[in-house]
Every structure is written in structure tokens, then in C-alpha cells.
User: What shape does this take?
Amino acid sequence: MRPKAVTLPRAEAPRRAAPEPSIRAARVADIPALLRLEELCFASDRLSRRSFQHLLTKGHAISLVAELGEEVIGYAIVLLHGRTSLARLYSIAVEPTRQGRGYGLALVREAEARVLADGRAVMRLEVRPDNPRAIARYRESGYREIGVYPNFYEDHADALRMEKMLAGGDRPELRRIPYYAQTLEFTCGAACLMMAMKTLDPGLGLGRNLELKLWRESTLIFMSAGHGGASPYGLALAARRRGFEVEVFVNDDGPLFLDSVRSSEKKEVMRLVHEDFRAEAAEAGIPVVHRALTADELMGYLSAEAVPVVLFSSYALYGEKEPHWVVLTGHDERFIYFHDPFVGTEGHKTPIDCMNVPVSHPDFDRMARYGSAGLRAAVILKRRRETGRRGH
Assistant: This one.
């Protein structure tokens, strides 16, 4: 199901002072009341019992209800993006006969306070461009437009994207990097390489065929479970074959990711693939520097029209023990922003949740490394001086 438009209830002036609602965390026992609100407030895109059950028990979310006495008269659900600084107001509803009394705004303010207390500093939402009343209410509450996502809703309407910096300040200008979501659990490196190449060569076509080709060319074959992930050397070679200048920075010159598998046979295969990648990179003249780049250096490359693809720890990001690749898109004095190619098939995330994700500078330093040895790696893509080949 696509997310519904997040619409604050109508803002007519109340005829008499409205009683203050009690706002608390939603519980599974509230699901019948939440379903009733869905029926009353939305003609389509209604959340199901199963969706509420997931959000209240397994979803990475903050879910609130507003009560008058013992009656649930509204709710708000905020999705949290892993362990980053980003939150997204996913859905809000107030019982129609109670609208126009400030209950929706009270829910939004309480959600913002709880998000901030949870260590998140940026709240986003989507709203239909043909809903000027809701847009005006959000603007009054400090939200600013950050873009339009085309063909977002079930009726193919666009979504106006809005954002609020909960800790104050303005959003920085971010690099315009096209977004591509990985279509398989193990193709994050290939998806990031596609985003970087598309930025430097807007005419490059993106699709699953290219994603799988890049993965085949860059994979280390094995990982802790299932198929292998991408090597920085393999990603660099795949980019060079397509005509891009590239540099590799890695703080370990030995075989990578060996601690992700237990089998000695698999370790040996990964070692052989690594040695082959290194030899090919040397033959291709790809610069390889055996040290980690600082955040300032990475941002320097981004400002110089290069695109950094950076190794992340999925454990630090999502609590999963796998290496992960992201594409950096910008920074300010508080945050570093990145595109995360992993949307996933469970929960209620969309590509919008994974674009320009903010993470604090200290958290970035913690996330941009992998494993107990603190492996740090980055692949820097640049335009080629001479015309290179596309696709393949």
C-alpha cells in the first residue's frame, strides 16, 4: 500500500474552547479504535488491522493516540529511519466531529517532541499539492517544501515533500543525485554505483539488468548469509570499464570482509577474488590509497563534482551484521546526508524515506566503518576526461 497524504484536520475556528486531549503511546488494544478512525477519516489508502499490528509491535515507529476521557479521537504515526536523525510523519487522523479544535496540531507537536527526545532532528512528510489548506498549516508549523515526488499516490498524483529541522537551522543545499533502490538484498553496492554514474552521466539508463551486471562484476561471491557483497576494488573496476575516473580509499590492504564468513573454504574463495580484483585495479591504473578518508575530505570530493560511494555498517544503521554501501549527497555543520539504496519489502518505507538521509557527524563516524576491525572504504567516482563507453 502506498502511504496516504498526511493531512492536518481542517482549521475552522472553534465555537467554544476545546478540552485538552490526553496524548499517549498507542497500544495493540487501541487497534479497533484506530480502524474506526480510518473508516471515518479516509475514503481510500486505509491502514489495515495487519498494518497497525505491525507498526505497533514490529515497526520502527512512534505511534500516538489522542484521548478525550477514555475515547480515542485521533492518532499520529511517525516512522524512524534506522538509527539516523530522520523521522517521517506517516499518517495522522482526527475523528471528523472533533476536527477544527487543534487536536491534529497537538498530535503533531507531541510527535515532534518525542522524535526530538529520541535523538531525531529532522521530520519529513508528504502532502498532496492540491491540498492548499494542509500545506498552509504545515508551513505555519515550520515545515518547508523540499521537492516533489512524481506519481506518488495510487491515483498517480504527485507528492509535495516537506521538512522541518526540529533543532532549528536551515536545510543545506544538497547535491542532486538521482535515486535508485536496490532490488535485491545484496545489490546495495551496485545500486550506489548506478546513482553515482547517473549523476556524472545523466544519459545513462538505469535498470535491473545494469544492477545485476554491476553486482556480478564487483561481488566477493560470499558473505555471512546468501550472496556476496561488493568489493571497493570490484566497484571501481566496474566504473572504470564504463569510462569513469575512479579512486579507491581503504584502510586495510588485506582481503576484505573475511570475518563475515566462518567457512575456511569460503574465506579462501574470497581471498582469491580479492587478489584478482587488486591485480586488475593495478593493471587498470586505478589509484588505491590505504587509509581512510575523513568526513571533510569526503565532502571536499563531493563539492569538487565527484561522487563518494562509502562503506557503511548495517549493524550501526539497522542492527544487522552486513556491510552496506551508501552515496553521499551533502553536509552542514550538524549532519552528513546520504542516499540509502535499501528500501526493503516489509514495513512502510518508500524511496522518499531513503533519500538525503541525515546523520550526525559523530554517528557518521561510527556508521562509516565495518566489523570489529573497523574497515573503512570509499570509492570516489569522477567524470572521465575523454569520452567513455556507456552501459554494458
